[in-house]
Structures are given as C-alpha cells and as structure tokens.
Design goal:
The protein has 19 helices and 14 strands. It is of the alpha/beta class. It has a 6-stranded parallel sheet. The N and C termini lie far apart (58 Å).
C-alpha cells in the first residue's frame, strides 16, 4: 500500500522563526516527528512519501500516487488541514486524520474518512490491517496510554534534513502537574511514560546518520517529569555524544522545579543540553495560584532563572496574560520581570481555553467562552477576560512592543550572556554551516537591518566583555531578528486593527 504522509502548514507565529530561517538557509524549524513515528508503526512493506507543507507543496501527482493519505495536525494547523482534506475529497483519495487536533475535536473532521483519537502505538496495527482489507472504521479511539518502550525508531530517513533548522526527538509523554489551562495532562496523562535509554541513543544515532548538524529538540512537555529515569539517561547521552563526536546540541522543556535540583541541572548541561524552555506563565503569585501552577510558587523565580543560566542552561520561557487575577499593573509587572530575569526569548500570549481542559470546562460553565476564531491570532482569544477586552489587547500590545524593541531585546541578551556559563565540553564545535549562517545574520542585521545601530552596539559589547561567546551572541541576535521583525510587521499592526472593534464589548459581569 502507498501511504502519503502530510503535515499541514503552520501559521506564522513567534514559534515559527520565519524571519530568521533565511540566515540559516532552512525552510522550517522542526520536522513532523509524529508522522515519522506513524510511518514506523505502519507495515514496513508499505511505500511511504512525506509531504511537509512547511517545506514543499502538495502536488496532484502526490495525491494520485497515494492509496491513503495520513494527515496530522495541531489546533493552529486547522485551516491548512481542512484545505488538504477538501482537496483529497475532490480527488477521491481516502484520508486518515490523527494528532492533537483530531484528539481534541474529532467532531470537526467530517471530511475525513477515518479519524484516530489519541496516541497511535496501540492502534496502528489494527488500523493498517483494516485499511488493507478495506474495512476501516470511521473512528479509532485509544483505550489506554501506550507503553513507550514499544514505540519504534522514527523514520528520519523520510525527511530532507537540510530543510530543517533543528531536529526533534521525544523521550517521554505526560506531566505530573495540574495546570488548569494545559491540555497535555488531558492528552497524555499525569503519569510520565518514558522510552528506554537504548531507544533514545538509537534515535540520536539515526539523527546523526542523516548528516544533520545543530540543535536537537527533546519535544517532551516536561522532560524531568520522571526525574529518576532522566538521571539514568543523561550519563548515557553524555557518553554517546563523546564516543560518537556527534555535532549535536540539545534543548528541551521542563518545569521550574528543575532549578531546585542542581545535580540534575549539571547532568543535563554536561550531556550537551544548552537551553530549557520553562512555562513561567506569570510573575503574579495570585495568577499562579489561580491556574494551579503551584510548582512556581514558594520560590524566587528570577533567582532560579539566573541559577539555571549560571549552571549552563539558558532559559527560554512562556508567559500568559488574561488570568482573572490580572489587574492593570500586570503589563508592567510582566515586562519588568522578563527584563530582570534576562530571558531573551519570551513567548507571551493571551489566555486561551483549549478543548477538554479544566479551564475550558470552568469558563464554559460560567458562560465566558467566545466561539473559536481561526485566522488572525493577535486579536481576541476564546476567553472573555475579567479585564475589559480593549484594555487587555492594548496592554498585550504594550508588553510585546517593549519586549521586542531592539534596545530592550539586546539589553536582555547582554545580561543573559553575562550570566550564562556553558559546562566544560558541553558545546559542539562551530562548523561551516554555523559560519555561513553567521555571515548571513551579520549582513542581514548589521548592514541591512533597520535596527543596525542597536545590533552593532551589542556586538561591540560582546567583543569587549565576552569575546569567547561571540558565536553564541550572533546566534542569539539572529533568533531575535524574527521576534523583532514579526512584532513590528505583524503583531502590533494586527492588535491595532482589532482594538476599535472591542470598545463596545460588554464587560464580564462580576461574580
């Protein structure tokens, strides 16, 4: 059987890195790891073709070739996914849809012939047999959480490694915490499940075999959810990296309690992890209590961020505006915290209620959900905040304008580089690809960029104070080019456009 694997297009966002990818000569940030895993779960005597719409086009010839098209997608990929489904329906191509969107809202996928809800490891064999026999059901639903030790080696051979800026690997699923807004515990549960150390090393070796050089993202939503397992894994990753001389660095996502465990931080840094994304969410203790982000309470968050940097892990972070406890002062409090913490890459979004989460259920009961709106993400979310919508959007715009003003961004970079100290031997050597990317970045920002004065001021400071961190500084500035440019060209104009329509919106009644 010929199986066409399709990854729909992602919209531009702070996550996409579009304006910086040109410096690296890459088309997309990350490959579609879910589809590579699905390909490995299906019969290996099938023929596979992968089309990632973030890298290339889907042609009619691709669709005519396929006996079945398997499509994945996150909620933000919804518009593109429906376009692919409609096209397949017009051409008479059978379709199977799975992934986070299908799991959250299977009822929206009426155009699909078959929908898979949940994780695929325990469903793939039955689905494949039914497809081959022509008896596949409209709906397949996961009955339990699969054992990841049985998950196969993803089919990294199906991708063009030179199309992606980073590679992806998954070690675990699930998170032990209970944040009200989070859908991870809904999809994957609160008991973290992990792969074996041997599986992880085999996947790293498969990535190395593609010839890829650069960062590998461990895509776990909380890499340290099972600390005992992680502490067993990291020494083996370090030994493999030293043994293979693999030109790979790592980063991942983790909870803030990582900073409490200096031994674990040191293990990660020595194994080649140079950064960690942390959901800080808000500097407000009231907001953290409201959303049940209790693991971020009872600690000085700025001190803990600085402590991670000083032990070799740079910190990237996510933040949310729109909690019920947010008052008029939250906008200055948010920007001041991010500047003081020296977090260059701060992803700030307005609160959104994801389907099936505790937050969604609560706001639904309270009559505080707007219809889901697709398209422009920098307008209203589906949450009716207690703060008047016009004030919320204006404050959100103010935060992003301040954070991604070039001077503010480079101030954070300076403070960040002052604090960040890589573990000995933890960084891969600079290679030709890095040099070429750096040349493009220096030309694009230092010669052609509209903020070149701020850029050269930053580079001059690095050369004077931390010349051994120059390559890191150039890469940091290059990544910042996307945040600065995207904010100026897309985000601020979008938020200004939506502001007038909010003036007449009725406030949420006080409870």
């Amino acid at each position: 059987m010929r199986a066409l694997l399709v990854n729909p297009q992602f919209p531009d966002s702070y996550w996409s890195g579009r304006y910086s990818l040109a410096f690296a000569g890459r088309k997309s940030l990350l490959p579609p790891l879910g589809l590579l895993t699905v390909a490995a779960l299906l019969p290996q005597d099938w023929s596979f073709r992968l089309v990632d719409l973030n890298v290339t086009e889907l042609t009619d010839e691709d669709l005519r070739w396929a006996d079945v098209t398997l499509i994945t997608g996150m909620l933000v990929q919804r518009p593109s996914l429906h376009q692919v489904l409609a096209r397949c329906r017009r051409m008479g191509v059978r379709t199977v849809v799975g992934g986070p969107y299908a799991t959250a809202l299977p009822e929206e996928l009426g155009l699909a012939d078959h929908v898979v809800v949940g994780e695929a490891e325990d469903l793939a064999a039955e689905l494949a047999a039914d497809l081959s026999a022509g008896r596949a059901r409209p709906l397949y639903r996961e009955s339990g959480k699969p054992d990841l030790t049985a998950s196969p080696l993803p089919r990294y051979d199906l991708i063009r490694p030179d199309a992606y800026h980073q590679m992806a690997l998954q070690y675990s699923r699930g998170c032990p915490f209970s944040c009200e807004f989070c859908d991870i515990i809904v999809m994957y549960g609160r008991k973290p499940r992990t792969k074996t150390n041997a599986q992880v090393l085999a996947e790293l070796e498969a990535i190395r075999a593609t010839g890829f050089v650069g960062d590998v993202f461990f895509v776990d939503d909380n890499f340290i959810g099972n600390k005992k397992a992680v502490k067993s894994l990291l020494p083996e990753v370090k030994a493999w990296r030293e043994r293979s001389s693999a030109p790979l660095d790592f980063y991942t996502e983790a909870s803030m309690n990582l900073a409490d465990d200096h031994g674990l931080v040191d293990l990660m840094a020595s194994a080649g992890f140079s950064a960690v994304f942390i959901g800080i969410e808000t500097p407000s203790p009231e907001g953290l209590r409201e959303t049940h982000k209790l693991q971020n309470l009872k600690r000085d968050l700025v001190d803990q961020v600085h402590g991670l940097m000083e032990r070799g892990l740079d910190v990237w972070a996510g933040f949310i505006l729109g909690f019920d406890s947010d008052g008029p002062g939250i906008f200055d409090q948010m920007t001041d915290f991010i500047q003081k913490a020296a977090i260059p890459y701060a992803m700030v979004g307005m609160l959104r209620a994801l389907p099936n989460t505790p937050l969604y259920r609560r706001l639904d009961r309270e009559g505080r959900l707007r219809p889901e709106v697709t398209g422009d993400q920098f307008g209203l979310t589906n949450v009716k905040t207690l703060m008047p919508a016009q004030k919320m959007v204006a404050g959100y715009r103010k935060v992003l304008e301040r954070l991604y003003n070039p001077d503010s961004f480079f101030d954070r970079c300076r403070d960040n580089l002052d604090r960040w100290e890589p573990a000995p031997g933890s960084l891969r050597p600079v290679v030709g690809r890095d040099i070429l990317s750096g040349i493009r970045a220096v030309a694009g920002q230092g010669l052609l960029g509209p903020y070149r004065r701020a850029y050269w001021k930053f580079i001059e400071w690095v050369l004077r104070h931390h010349p051994h961190k120059l390559s890191r500084a150039i890469a940091q500035a290059a990544a910042g080019h996307h945040y600065i440019t995207y904010t100026r060209r897309v985000v601020v104009p979008s938020l200004r456009r939506c502001a007038p329509a909010l003036a007449g919106e009725a406030p949420v009644p006080a409870s």
